[in-house]
Amino acid sequence: MQKKIIFFLKKNLKIIGLISLVIFAITVALYSNYQKNLGSKKYNNFIDNVYLKKTLNEIINNLEPRYKKYNHKIKSGETFDKILKEYSINKKEIIEIKESLLKKVNINKLNTNQKIQIVIDQTNNKIKEFIFQISNTEKIYLSRDNVGTKFNQKILTLKLDKKVIFKENTILQSLYKAATDQNIPPNTIIEFARIYGFQVDFQRDIRKDDKFQIMYEVFIDKNKKVIETGEIIFANLKLSGQDNSLYYFDKEDVIGHYDKNGKSVQKALMKTPINGARLSSSFGLRKHPIDGFTKMHRGTDFAAPKGTPIMASGNGIIKKVGWCGGGGNCIKIRHNSTYETVYAHMSKFARGMKTGVRVKQGQTIGFVGSTGKSTGPHLHYEVIVNGKKVNSQTLKLPSGKILKGKNRQLFETNKIKIDVLKSEKIIGLN
């Protein structure tokens, strides 16, 4: 018992000293007031309440809390070990934290802007609490047990409410501008462009005064803040007065967007694997901008700012990723036995892009650049059919599948529900 008391006193010596100083200051002040009441001016000159306040403020400001909290937002290129070493965490504790997290997260694949919170016990410089953000709605919470030998783990889940939003607008400049004017989240705009990317050329098909409608899900916290976005339930792109309505349908292996006739919009390849780009050079004969002589241009060029995301135009496996001579940084994807695509002049590749990696349609694979033989930032895009390079803009791709039987019946019922909900949103009933 005696040993425990001695250990406690040694461990908290600084805090005990500061508390003693506070008590002393209060005692002096009380004594000063006592002398004042007696009429003694000697002690009034010695100490005044102003000095007491100053003394107490200095003491309080110098009091160091036992636990210190650090908030860290993961930056590009940072590793788990590097982050913890930045906060002077020793190797043993780093190993303990990693072992506690391994079952829930892949610490070798950190995402930019993920958040970490560390609480350190300054009496022994050990981690007391460690919070790792898994997603917008989930965190792993590690807390050291009372003995101090291991970490207890639990998952903190943020409860969110789903809300359906309906927006519409007239396109005056671009679809993106018209959508952002309605405060539609950027990732929802990108998804909207993606689902129409199979059938619409956003540079040539969209004209001034065309219209769009969109109904999408958002998930909000108790403060009504949007934490995550969900599916686009309904979309309509009205081009030259003609509606192009799409409905979201989610049943086992037929998940996706379908037109009013139950036909999937998804095709083998997207028409344009980049959003917000300008068609700068078509497929065919042209005067080469660098070499200066006329030659066959066996691809399509899309001019866009450096860093603009480039998407895989279809599901497939990466056949090549690396330097392609005049094409600079490029990726080649094999989609099936018939189709292959090439994406050239990239500034850099997306994380995880390696030969043999499987990618999904619409997935970001790299970013616009001007590497290789290039006069400015753009994407050089090639489509190869049975080993022959073809014009991606005139290529007739297989139509999407059509719902049949029971799925078609379920789709029709779902479509009616969506139309009713849309009508309620428009007239303000929902």
Number of domains: 4
The low-confidence runs, each spanning 5 or more residues with pLDDT under 50, are: 39-44
CATH fold label of the largest domain: Glucose Permease (Domain IIA)
The total of beta strands comes to 22
Give the full name of the CATH homologous superfamily of the largest domain: Glucose Permease (Domain IIA)
Helix content: 25-40%
How much of the sequence is in beta strands? 25-35%
Structure annotation, total helices: 9
Structural class designation: alpha+beta
- Cα Rg: 32 Å
- CATH classification class of the largest domain: Mainly Beta
Task: Give me some keywords for this one.
22 strands; alpha+beta; Nuclear Transport Factor 2, Chain: A; 4 domains; 430 residues; five-stranded antiparallel beta sheet; 9 helices; ten-stranded antiparallel beta sheet; globular; 26% helix; single chain
Description:
With 430 residues, this protein is an alpha+beta fold. The protein folds into four domains: 45 residues, no CATH class; 91 residues, Roll (Nuclear Transport Factor 2, Chain: A); 97 residues, Nuclear Transport Factor 2, Chain: A, CATH 3.10.450; 113 residues, Glucose Permease (Domain IIA) (Distorted Sandwich), CATH 2.70.70. The protein is built from nine helices and 22 strands. The strands form four sheets. Strands 11, 14, 15, 16, 17, 18, 19, 20, 21 and 22 form a ten-stranded antiparallel beta sheet that branches. The protein has a five-stranded antiparallel beta sheet with strand order 1-2-3-4-5, covered by helices on one side. β21 and β22 form a beta hairpin. α2 runs antiparallel to α4. It starts with a helix and ends with a helix.
